[in-house]
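Related to Ribonucleoside-diphosphate reductase small chain, Armillaria ostoyae. Tokens?
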Amino acid sequence: MEPIVNNVMTGRLQLFPIEYDELWDMYMKAKAAFWTAAEIDLSKDLTDWDERLTENKRHVISTVLAFFASSDAIVSKNLVTRFCREVQIPEAHYFYTFQAMMENIHSEVYGLLIDTYIREPTECFTLFRTIDEHPTVKAKAVWALRWIEDSSSFATCLVAFAAVEGIFFSGSFSVIFWLKKWGLMPGLSFSNELIVCDEGMHTLFAVMLYHTLKQPLPAEAILEIIRGVVDIEKAFWDGTFKSSCLGLDVDSMKKYIEYVADYLLDGLGVSKFYNSVNPFEFMELISLKGKTNFFK
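Tokens:
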């Protein structure tokens, strides 16, 4: 059995002395980056939404926000239901409980964004039920939820949720960063910057914790998880991009997803699989790096 995953009666209950310095440092960084939904000013976004975004652009942004609103709740559920129950080291408990709070704030922000931009009640209600209404969003949610209740090992679930936050989120983040490049939707863009920084730390923490495991997964098992996520994510963009949007196209998005997947594989100690070049000059893997190169 993994030393960090053991019976609660034999686990450490006291935080000090710190035994996992890198994990504790990540908690301190996450705490220093704390923010709340009240810091987001959406007052200037509605003019852009109504006058500068086409119907196609609004469709893509609405779908992205609806996915995020549901996905953060799934991540939080996994933290509370599985990770905090299985991991028995205080350094990880501190990080995971703080992360769960931040995921709640992310969900709150996405809900506020939808409620602000979508003023037609039926459409708004549909977006809040996207997991039931949108097939490719549902596929992403079903894939993530399966790991919470099944009998897979902690290592497997850890890699799976690193892929959720590191890959499922990356394409959607890039769309919002593209809006910022064109000076659109400043409130949405600012919230995206804050959330991307958080998610970068969450993905990094998963990679760090994975490297503490004494029984890591075979490379083939990790690759199978990552390839499964990539295939689902590509299908999501096939269903979301009706045509080229904001100068982005589905083929470039798929290449970007492969590029991000290779980066995560490398972080987990597995050889790159796709060997794709980053097609988006405006993105520097922010969703995996944050403000620094986390895997170096």
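The first helix runs from residue 21 to 32.
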